[in-house]
C-alpha cells in the first residue's frame, strides 16, 4: 500500500491561501467557543476525570458490557449482529437491504461506515445511498471524503458549496450556482433530501453511545436528519463501533455535557435521541463492529485511543491540522486522533502521519476523555522508526544525528561548524527533492553566537 505523503498533500491545500486561512480561522473559532463553554463549568475537569475513568472501566470490561448490551437490546426487540471487520459489516448491511428489496438508503453521519467504505460497497450492488447530513452530502456530491469528523465540509467556502450544488443537484432543483447565501444553500439541501426520506426503504445511523444497562443507544445531531433517517423508513440499521459502549444511563450525562461543548462550543447538541426498541410495524437492527478495535485494545501504548468520543476538539486546536486540512491525511480519521488511530489500520501506509504534529500537547489538554494524544504520537514515531518505516533519507539523517548527539565533543564541534557554515550552505543541499524540510521553509540566519557560547559567557561554568 502506497505511503500517504502528508507534506505533499498539504501543499495543495496551502497553495489555495484563502481556503487555508479560512480553515485556520474557522477551527480556531470553534476552539475559542469550546474554551468559553468549558470555563463556564466549574466542574469541567471533574467531568473529564469521570469520563476518562468510565471509558477506562468499560474498555477493561468490554466483553461483559457488550454481552449485557446484546441481551438487553434483544429483550427490547432489537436484532443484534456482530461484525468482525469492515467486510462483514458491509455484507450484513447489504444482506438486510437486499432481503427486503431496498434500493434507496438514507443515512446520517457515521465515521464508522466511512471507515468500512460501506457507501461504494452498496452502490456497486445497485443500492443508492444518500447522505442526509448537510456537510456529508456536500462531500458526497463533490466526490470527496469528509475532512473533519464533526464538520465534514469545513474546508469549503460558501462559494464552493454553491458551485457543488449548482453542478450536481442544480439542474433538477434549479439551484443558482452563484447564490452562496447560507439559508438558501441549506434550503436547497432540504428540498433535495426530504423526498428521499419518504421514498427510502431503510435508514442507517451511527451511534454516539450504546448503553449496556438499557440495551439502547443514543445519537446526537444538530440537523435532525438522523431522526428522519431512523424514523421514516420501515427499517432502521445502526452501525456501532464496540468502543461506544458505556455501562449505565447515569453515565451518559457526563458525556452528553461534554460532547457538544468540546466539539462546537455549544452546551448540547440540538437533538439527543434515544433508540430503545423498534417502532410498531418496523424493524431495528444494530451491527456491532470490531474492525481492529479488539486488537487495538491489546496494544499497551495505544488502547487509550478507544476512549475517543469523536468530538473533534483535538483537530480544532491542532496547528498542523488547521493549516493542512483534513484531506491531506489521506485517511478516514485526520488530525491528532487520526494520527494515533490510522497506523493501527496500516502502519506502512500511515507512517508519515505521526510526524504531522508539533507535539505541543494542546490536543491532550482539550480532550474531554483525557487521551494522552501527544504522548501516543511520540510513541508511534518510535514504533515507526523501530520497524524501519521511516523514509530512507530521514532514517539515515537520524542515524547520523544519533551518533553526533551521543558524543558531546563531536556535538559541540558540529554545532560550531554549522553556525560558521550555515550562511554559506549551497542551496541545493537544503532545497532538493530528497529534503521535505526545505519544501516549506527557509534556513534561518545563524545567530552571532551559539547557545553554549552565550551560556558560558553569561553564567560561567565548565567548558
Ligand atoms: S481524541 Fe479526544 S479530543 Fe480528539 S476527537 Fe477523540 S475525544 Fe475528541
> How many domains is the backbone divided into?
3
Mean pLDDT: 94
Q: Considering the protein shown, what is the CATH homologous superfamily of the largest domain?
A: NagB/RpiA/CoA transferase-like
CATH topology of the largest domain: Rossmann fold
**Could you name the ranges where pLDDT drops below 50 across 5 or more consecutive residues?**
none
**Measured distance between first and last alpha carbons:** 51 Å
Rg value:
25 Å
Strand content: 5-15%
Helix content: 40-55%
- Under the CATH scheme, which architecture of the largest domain would be assigned? 3-Layer(aba) Sandwich
Structure characterization notes:
This protein has 3 domains: about 40-290, NagB/RpiA/CoA transferase-like (Rossmann fold, 3-Layer(aba) Sandwich); about 305-385, no CATH class; about 395-460, no CATH class. Helix content is about 50%, strand content about 10%. The protein contains 23 helices and 10 strands. The protein has helices at about 5-15, 15-40, 45-60, 60-75, 85-100, 110-115, 120-125, 135-140, 160-170, 170-175, 180-200, 225-230, 250-265, 295, 315, 320-325, 335-345, 360-365, 375-385, 390-405, 410-420, 425-430, 450-460, and strands at about 80-85, 105, 130, 200-205, 210, 215-220, 235-240, 245, 270-275, 285-290. It has a 6-stranded parallel sheet, with helices on both faces. It is globular. It starts with 5 loop residues before the first helix and ends with a helix. Bound molecules: iron/sulfur cluster. Iron/sulfur cluster binds next to helix 15.
Amino acid at each position: 500500500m502506497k505511503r500517504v505523503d502528508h507534506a505533499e498533500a498539504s501543499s495543495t491545500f496551502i497553495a489555495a491561501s484563502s481556503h487555508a486561512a479560512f480553515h485556520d480561522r474557522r477551527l480556531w473559532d470553534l476552539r475559542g467557543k469550546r474554551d468559553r463553554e468549558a470555563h463556564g463549568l466549574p466542574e469541567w475537569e471533574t467531568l473529564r476525570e469521570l469520563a476518562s475513568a468510565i471509558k477506562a472501566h468499560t474498555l477493561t470490561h468490554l466483553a461483559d458490557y457488550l454481552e449485557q448490551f446484546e441481551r438487553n437490546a434483544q429483550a427490547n426487540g432489537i436484532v443484534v449482529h456482530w461484525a468482525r471487520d469492515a467486510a462483514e459489516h458491509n455484507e450484513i448491511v447489504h444482506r438486510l437491504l437486499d432481503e427486503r428489496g431496498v434500493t434507496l438508503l438514507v443515512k446520517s453521519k457515521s465515521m464508522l461506515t466511512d471507515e468500512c467504505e460501506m457507501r461504494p460497497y452498496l452502490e456497486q450492488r445497485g443500492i443508492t445511498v444518500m447522505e442526509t447530513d448537510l456537510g456529508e452530502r456536500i462531500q458526497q456530491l463533490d466526490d470527496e471524503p469528509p475532512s473533519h469528523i464533526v464538520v465534514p465540509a469545513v474546508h469549503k467556502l460558501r462559494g464552493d458549496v454553491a458551485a457543488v450544488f449548482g453542478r450536481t443537484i442544480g439542474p433538477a432543483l434549479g439551484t443558482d450556482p452563484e447564490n452562496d447565501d447560507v439559508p438558501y444553500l441549506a434550503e436547497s439541501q432540504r428540498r433535495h433530501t426530504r423526498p428521499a426520506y419518504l421514498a427510502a426503504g431503510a435508514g442507517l445511523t451511527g451511534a454516539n453511545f450504546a448503553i449496556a444497562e438499557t440495551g439502547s443507544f443514543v445519537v446526537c445531531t444538530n440537523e435532525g436528519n438522523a431522526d428522519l433517517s431512523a424514523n421514516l423508513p420501515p427499517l432502521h440499521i445502526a452501525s456501532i463501533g464496540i468502543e461506544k459502549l458505556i455501562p449505565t444511563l447515569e453515565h451518559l450525562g457526563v458525556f452528553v455535557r461534554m460532547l457538544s461543548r468540546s466539539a462546537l462550543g455549544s452546551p448540547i447538541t440540538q437533538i439527543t435521541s434515544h433508540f430503545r426498541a423498534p417502532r410498531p410495524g418496523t424493524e431495528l437492527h444494530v451491527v456491532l463492529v470490531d474492525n481492529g478495535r479488539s486488537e487495538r485494545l491489546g496494544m499497551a501504548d495505544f488502547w487509550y485511543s478507544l476512549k475517543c468520543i469523536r468530538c473533534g476538539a483535538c483537530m480544532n486546536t491542532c496547528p498542523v491540522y488547521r493549516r493542512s486540512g483534513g484531506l491531506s491525511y489521506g485517511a478516514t480519521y485526520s488530525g491528532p486522533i487520526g494520527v494515533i488511530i490510522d497506523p493501527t489500520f496500516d502502519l506502512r501506509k500511515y507512517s508519515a502521519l505521526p510526524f504531522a504534529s508539533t507535539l505541543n500537547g494542546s490536543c491532550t489538554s482539550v480532550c474531554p476523555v483525557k487521551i494522552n494524544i501527544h504522548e501516543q504520537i511520540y510513541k508511534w514515531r518510535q514504533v515507526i522508526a523501530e520497524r524501519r518505516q521511516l523514509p530512507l533519507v530521514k532514517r539515515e539523517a537520524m542515524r547520523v544525528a544519533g551518533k553526533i548527539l551521543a558524543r558531546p565533543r563531536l556535538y559541540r564541534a558540529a554545532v560550531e561548524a554549522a553556525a560558521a557554515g550555515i550562511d554559506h550552505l549551497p542551496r541545493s543541499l537544503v532545497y532538493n527533492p530528497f529534503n521535505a524540510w526545505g519544501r516549506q521553509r527557509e534556513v534561518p540566519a545563524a545567530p552571532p553566537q551559539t547557545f553554549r557560547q552565550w551560556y558560558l559567557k553569561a553564567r560561567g561554568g565548565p567548558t
